[in-house]
Design goal:
Blueprint: E1 14-17, H1 24-54, H2 61-90, E2 94-96, H3 97-130, H4 135-138, H5 141-167, E3 176-177, H6 184-190, H7 196-229, H8 234-262, H9 271-295, H10 298-314
Parallel strand pairs: 1-3
Antiparallel strand pairs: 1-2
Helix pairs in contact: 1-2, 1-9, 1-10, 2-3, 2-9, 3-5, 3-7, 3-8, 5-7, 7-8, 8-9
């Protein structure tokens, strides 16, 4: 917006989230669909967590990182979907300025953590397949914890940087966000002060946050693919490709939607596409991750069966 547009206007104290649909019938349908998706996602990821915690066979570095990913997926969908469901039920679509910034901070904290955790998982597969003799020492429990702590620190710094930068903008005119949660591109459109520095920051930090992990993941899997092709056993190749294939599928979904959303700042005409990408980021990806990792992983399938069916049969 024009930086001079709202010089004498009152600062916006709350925003209006327009949501996904306007029709009352469609709102009811959206509520049911998103409630089902939320319960399915939370249930699926808690099932993965329970299997990893209760099944000793899964107490390995790969599943330690997968458990953390499941916890992140629960957090990511909880930051966005329950508030949207509350707005659909109460018909109150307003969100305070502070609540909007809080939602944005936690969303970028969890999404940033996803970036680094997926990289740690790729590094784990690289060590397990390419450096099997030194794997246990290079991926010890201490190393695993360091990787997770460093990931949280980087994600926290990223989220805090964008949130603080956003507080420097003035919001003194339009307050309708054409989305179902607060995010940077949509808030930039409403600012009555220049967003040039914020946009440069988004591109710069986004390039580091997405570009560096992508390069590391691709590098890891180039080495992994070369090592797997040297395996003579067909069964060994199949198991390695199955494990790595699940991770690569999640990486492609996560980075594909993330790059589309943040590496180009949507115009008002593109806002409906932004909503679709937002649904992918906050609902579909967290919902698909348990299915991707369990459907293609016999170890997880066996653990889930043992935890939920085996224990019930014993009682």
């Amino acid at each position: 917006m024009d930086p001079e547009a709202g010089t004498n206007s009152t600062t916006v104290a709350e925003f209006i989230l327009l949501g996904l649909v306007e029709s009352e019938t469609l709102r009811s349908m959206v509520f049911v669909l998103f409630l089902f998706a939320y319960l399915l996602t939370v249930g699926g990821n808690f099932s993965i967590l329970a299997a990893i915690l209760l099944e000793p066979k899964l107490h390995t570095p790969m599943y330690f990182f997968l458990g953390n990913l499941s916890a992140l997926d629960i957090g990511c969908i909880t930051v966005t979907v329950p508030p949207m469901l509350s707005h659909l039920v109460s018909h109150r679509r307003t969100i305070s300025y502070i609540a909007c910034l809080t939602q944005l901070f936690f969303f970028h904290l969890l999404a940033g953590m996803d970036c680094f955790l997926l990289t740690a998982m790729a590094y784990d597969r690289f060590l397990a397949i390419c450096q099997p003799l030194t794997y246990s020492t290079r991926m010890s429990q201490t190393v695993q914890r360091i990787l997770v702590v460093v990931s949280w620190a980087c994600a926290f710094s990223n989220a805090l940087t964008h949130t603080i930068a956003l507080t420097t903008l003035k919001f003194c005119g339009p307050n309708k966000i054409n989305h179902f949660y607060c995010d940077l591109p949509q808030l930039f459109q409403l600012s009555c002060s220049s967003t040039q520095l914020n946009e440069l920051l988004l591109f710069g930090v986004g390039f580091i946050m997405a570009g560096t992990p992508v390069v590391l993941i691709i590098s890891s899997y180039v080495h992994v693919a070369a090592a797997v092709l040297r395996i003579r056993s067909v069964e060994g190749r199949k198991k390695a490709f199955s494990t790595c294939g699940s991770h690569l599928t999640v990486v492609c979904l996560f980075y594909g939607t993330g790059i589309f959303n943040y590496m180009r700042l949507g115009s008002e005409e593109a806002s409906d596409k932004d909503k679709g990408v937002g649904i992918f980021n906050t609902v579909i990806n967290p919902m698909l991750n348990p299915l991707i990792y369990s459907l293609r992983n016999p170890d997880v399938q066996g653990a889930l069966w043992h935890v939920f069916v085996g224990r019930r049969s014993r009682t």
